[in-house]
């Protein structure tokens, strides 16, 4: 992998062992992909999305808009092609079908056609610069390895996947309620995490500094593998976003799901990690003594994790504990184990690449399908359609013989329909209104200038 590739957030190059970097499932190969891109990949929908209404006949449309968008292809044997651009849906579709990329990444909209950047560079003027890019977030389950015991690395199961569900709930709510964004697309990465695309006009035009400010707004996870205290919660009380996240999402998930499912307090090795987060050594020692001596808790009908957690809360939140740090400690433990862990660099920089929806992940063969944030509890990554499954469905005729589109004959149809109806159509309606309003404002400005 080149440094350039590493800097652009690739998540499909996890090396599982010697010589495994290029290993792909038996069900994943260029021939299968060629059929997928020929029959199932929604080229037209991707084009409409990336055009943001500028593909119409309205005089306010920017005809060069789509042609200034960077696309990156990763081909078989890790051949990596950046700064590609296309002027129409036909060009995009033909190139994808011809090159059959193992992965498609989407970059920013530049000031000039990225494919012609060298010509502009020779002119001496620094005119090749990103001017628009969706606000994006990348969350990987592998960043939670210190708080899950069922899986490690890129592996994921239904015991730990809810950590991704919680991340979606927390970030999506804040993007809508705190920042006023409406057009947000959540996508399964195909293997170990989720991607978020915020596509409102005001989000796409954010500067790097503004993006960094939004990323910092979400950032409370300060720790590393060598630090006991991984969370820094500022102020005497949680500010509204964190308080809402804690009371509405994180606390309940930690106590009813994560704590018992991951057995966070069941063994000495695991509960020591939590005791180390308590800043008062005497309090930690008291809990440690109680848990080591009171073996009857393990014989109780009640879950030992729940019993010990209630004991910890009782001591830390009792009236005797005047120290604010101890009362806050319960919240810090919950945040440490459940709060979204964002790849900050992905969100801060406009020129970062992110994998396109509806790609097929070469490590799993699974399609990068959209996730409905309103029903994300129901999303199961283990049932996401695979490339071989989709082709098998095509071969045997699929669920609907009378389907208008090929994908409606497969289990991918539901995902494409959701993408269209819940995300793309409302987005394009908003974009066309924005183009109309901007055009009318310019006309009025011109009239005012002439009358003056």
From TrEMBL:
UniProt protein name: DNA primase
Keywords recorded for this protein, A-Z: DNA replication, DNA-directed RNA polymerase, Metal-binding, Nucleotidyltransferase, Primosome, Transcription, Transferase, Zinc
Root EC class: transferase
SUPFAM superfamilies: Prim-pol domain
Organism: Gossypium hirsutum (Upland cotton)
One Gene Ontology term of the molecular function aspect: DNA-directed RNA polymerase activity
InterPro entries, A to Z: DNA_primase_S, DNA_primase_ssu_euk/arc
Pfam families assigned to the protein according to its UniProt record, in alphabetical order: DNA_primase_S
């Amino acid at each position: 992998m080149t440094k350039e590739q590493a800097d652009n957030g690739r998540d499909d190059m996890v090396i599982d062992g010697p010589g495994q970097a290029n290993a792909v499932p038996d069900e994943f190969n260029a021939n299968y992909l060629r059929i997928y891109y020929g029959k199932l990949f929604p080229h037209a929908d991707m084009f409409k999305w990336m055009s943001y209404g500028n593909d119409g006949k309205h005089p306010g449309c920017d005809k060069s808009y789509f042609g200034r968008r960077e696309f990156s292809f990763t081909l078989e044997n890790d051949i990596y092609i950046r700064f590609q651009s296309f002027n129409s849906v036909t060009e995009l579709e033909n190139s994808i079908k011809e090159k059959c990329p193992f992965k498609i990444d989407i970059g920013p909209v530049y000031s000039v056609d990225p494919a012609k950047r060298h010509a502009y560079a020779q002119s001496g003027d620094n005119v090749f610069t990103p001017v628009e890019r969706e606000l994006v977030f990348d969350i990987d389950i592998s960043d939670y390895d210190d708080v899950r015991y069922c899986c490690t690395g890129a592996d994921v199961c239904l015991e730990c996947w809810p950590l991704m569900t919680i991340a979606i709930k927390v970030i999506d709510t804040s993007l809508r309620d705190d920042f006023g964004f409406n057009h947000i697309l959540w996508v399964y990465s195909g293997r170990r995490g989720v991607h978020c695309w915020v596509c409102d006009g005001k989000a796409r035009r954010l500067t790097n500094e503004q993006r960094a400010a939004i990323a910092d707004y979400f950032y409370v996870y300060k720790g590393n593998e060598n630090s006991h205290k991984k969370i820094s919660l500022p102020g005497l009380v949680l500010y509204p976003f964190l308080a809402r996240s804690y009371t509405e999402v994180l606390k309940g998930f930690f106590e009813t799901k994560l704590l018992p499912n991951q057995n966070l307090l069941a063994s000495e090795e695991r509960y020591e990690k939590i005791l180390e987060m308590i800043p008062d050594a005497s309090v930690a020692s008291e809990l440690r003594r109680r848990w080591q001596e009171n073996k009857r808790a393990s014989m109780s009908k009640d879950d030992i994790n729940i019993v010990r957690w209630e004991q910890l809360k009782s001591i830390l939140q009792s009236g005797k504990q005047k120290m604010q740090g101890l009362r806050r400690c319960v919240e810090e433990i919950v945040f440490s184990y459940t709060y979204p862990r964002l790849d900050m660099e992905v969100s801060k920089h406009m020129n970062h690449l992110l994998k396109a929806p509806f790609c097929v992940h070469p490590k799993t063969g699974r399609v990068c399908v959209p996730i409905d944030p309103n029903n994300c509890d129901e999303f199961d990554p283990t049932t996401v359609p695979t490339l071989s499954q989709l082709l098998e469905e095509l071969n045997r005729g699929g669920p609907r013989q009378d389907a208008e589109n090929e994908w409606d004959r497969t289990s991918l149809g539901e995902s494409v329909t959701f993408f269209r109806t819940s995300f793309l159509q409302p987005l394009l309606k908003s974009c066309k209104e924005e183009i109309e309003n901007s055009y009318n404002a310019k006309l009025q400005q011109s009239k005012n200038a002439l009358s003056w």
